[in-house]
Design brief:
2 domains, about 375 residues, MetI-like fold, 4 strands, alpha+beta, 15 helices, four-stranded antiparallel beta sheet
Amino acid sequence: MSKRKKTQEDYYLASQWTLMARKLKKHKLAKVSMIVLAILYFGALFADFIAPYNINSEFPAAYKDTHPTKIHMYHDGEKVGPFVYGVEWVVDKKTFTRSIVEDTSEYFPVGFFVKGDDYKLFGLIPCNIHLFGTKTGSNGSPASSARIYIFGGDQYGVDLFSRVMKGSQVSLTIPFASAIISFFLGVTIGSISGYFGGAIDIVIQRIIEVIGAVPQIPLWMALSAAIPLGISTIKMYFYMTIILSFINWTGMARIVRGKFLSLKNEDYVMAARLSGVSTWKIIWKHLVPGFMSYLIVSMTLGIPGSIVGETSMSYLGLGIKSPATSWGVLLHDASNVTDIATNPHKLIPIIFVTITVLAFNFLGDGLRDAADPYK
């Protein structure tokens, strides 16, 4: 058998998922997006290790609103490798204004896999090794006397990079969990609506229309008002997931309903009914798998909306609140225009939100093209 003939045979015998995978490999933006998302989720998984500091530890007041730390190579004309200086506040006796300056009397080497603040890896394993950080100073001062803030410090003197990494655990997982729940809610409710029709379909569609007619921000406010005050971060995480799932399932339900209306009278479905196959088996074994690829594409394209939703809720103060952190909380802390004018580094979390949303959109576009049988 010739190689060309074998390739054609493999093509015609390949499953739908195999064909989708082959098409997806040819989509450059989708491949790059998968790599970017893999890096982001890897960073979220090992955030406590990658972040040089525990955001719940004490931070020196001198690092309040500091700009990104300068990394030096030469001290007093001698090359000593990468290091940072400590900082201190200096008051101008003429204008009585305070400014942050480097204390060059002692340098602190920067290294990898250094000991630092205690944390629990994956929330279970006690550890104090961080990917990078400062070491003991040249004059013997403890490493904590100088900090390395590659993204600068916030208004509390906390390392912004550590907060971004820790916040990614919330901002990347809540929307993903919400999208999965919305997926199953949408598929279940949409299949009931499209398959049974009649009064059930009318009631479900009116509910979807009511939810869709309410502006999102007032709906967020109403649902957030139902969350008890003073609850733990874990419970807030749970409530945020439920809120986003409650809002986002309607679009998936509409898609599934439309598919069921066009497929439920097909010959293979009628044959299954006549053979005595149960209703739920027809739905989950015969109908849903027929357009599962499109559902996965819709779910992928819906995740960016959930990310923006979580960020918006936290930014408006309706979701995660300090001292817990997420990208939305960081943007909420940077909502003062005057503060941003002097500390533009506080807008760095926007870059992470934008990159994540674009990556999911490009991946969704790639999946949509791969699932299209006419391409």
